[in-house]
Amino acid sequence: MRPSFTIGIEEEYQTVDPTTRDLRSHIHAEVIAKGKMILEERVKPEMHQSVVEVGTGICKNIKEAKAEVTGLRRDMVRLARENGLRLASAATHPFADWRVQEIYPDERYHTIVEDMQLVARANLIFGLHVHIGIEDRETAIHMMNHARYFLPHLLALSTNSPFWLGMNTGLKSYRCKVFDKFPRTNIPDYFPSWGEYENFIKLLIKTNCIDNAKKIWWDIRPHPFFNTIEFRVCDIPMRADETIALAALIQATVAKLYKLHTANQGFRLYRRALLMENKWRAARYGMSGKLIDFGKQTEVPAKDLIHEYLDFVDDVVDELDSREELNYIHTMLETGSGADRQLQVYKDTGDLKKVVDYIIEETEAGLAENEPAAARKVG
After folding, report:
1. What 3-state class would DSSP assign to 192?
2. b/e burial code for range 345-357 (CB count within 10 A of at least 16 → b)
3. Which of 179, 215, 221, 326 lies 20 to 30 A from 319 at CA?
4. Overall pTM surpassing 0.85 (yes/no)
5. How far apart (Å, rounded) are the C-alpha atoms in residues 267 and 275?
6. How far apart are CA 55 and CA 228, in angstroms?
7. Distance CA 198, CA 220 (A)
8. Which pLDDT belongs to residue 337?
9. Would you state the pLDDT for residue 372?
10. Beta carbons within 8 Å of 38's beta carbon, 6+ residues apart
11. What parts of the chain have a pLDDT lower than 70?
12. Where are the extended beta strands (E) located within 86-226?
């Protein structure tokens, strides 16, 4: 059965105090409760009280996804402003201290904190998750195996977390290093079949490692409850256009890999240890560094490999009707990632509050009806 390649997108936002520019709990502003009145189940809390997650419905194509993501952002920006807050889309806050952030009063989150202690409390990060519909589970596990290769490329494009606790970390995605303190994270191993994956999950449940497969937090996973594979590697980008471009690239990746799969031309599988070398490079340098081309066994500028990546998926893009949305990747290569732009603002101003102002400005860019979202180039 041919996959549907439907799209679902989840974004995690920061709620920020407009005066101090620090994170502020959305509890007393009742942003979640008010959001549910408008958006129903598409808005929900996360573990920390200054994190709000929104999720689209099941979108048939990238144009539906763009309309939903833009509408959700617009509604949440307005709701935050009406309640004395601002919405900020970055994968870490430039200077907030996780030690003073309260945990959302929910049994699930308290269980996670009880289980993982300081590791969970320090996990003040914000991600982008993209689901692609693959109804046959055997096909899904093979698509996951092959798509692992492209996770560092996607991370490099999305990097948007250079600061932590008021410090320039020297990494473009410090979020990765915060999250990999959790168990069952990073790039997964290769699974020869869906049955072997199921046996792995059953063993973890039987030995009380997890109570269900949602506690598998890999960079890509078969979703335990939906017929999707979920890409979890990306930092949350600042702009809605960046989110949509990444989702379009992810959908095209899965569609191209499926096309090869049905022609018995599967993409080459690489060891997890090698892929993790590229993930480190992507987290450290983003688009400005080099990744390893394993076929050529040499280092190549990340931007060159991303151009090759775009060429690789090009023959499925028109069938998916996503060329316009995917083309924004070229703009991202020109303007730099969110991390590049944050660092440029800090270099220009020396003020992390100005960086927060910039993030808020970019989070709202292009959301007004018929508003052109002019890209801001760094350097």
Report:
1. coil
2. bbeeeeebeebbb
3. 221
4. yes
5. 14
6. 14
7. 16
8. 97
9. 43
10. 75, 79
11. 26-49, 103-109, 114, 116, 369-379
12. 86-88, 128-133, 163-164, 167-168, 220-222
Rounded Cα distance, 124 and 96, in Å: 9
How far is residue 45's CA from residue 26's CA, in Å, rounded to a whole number? 9
Nearest residue to 228 (alpha-carbon basis) of 19, 58, 12, 77 = 58
E-only strand ranges, 232-283? none
Gap between the Cα atoms of 27 and 106, Å rounded:
12
Single-letter code of the amino acid located at 299: E
- Can you tell me the distance from the alpha carbon of 289 to that of 306, in angstroms, rounded to the nearest whole number? 12
Q: For residue 132, give both structure tokens.
A: 């692609």
pLDDT value at position 122?
A: 78
DSSP 59-80: BSSHHHHHHHHHHHHHHHHHHH
Coil, helix or strand for 340? helix
What is the DSSP secondary-structure string of 9-73?
A: EEEEEEEE-TTT-SB--STTTTHHHHHHHHHGGGEEE-SBTTEEEEE---BSSHHHHHHHHHHHH
pLDDT of residue 48: 61
Query: Which pair of structure tokens corresponds to residue 189?
Result: 């191993």
How many Cβ atoms are within 10 Å of 201's Cβ, its own excluded?
17
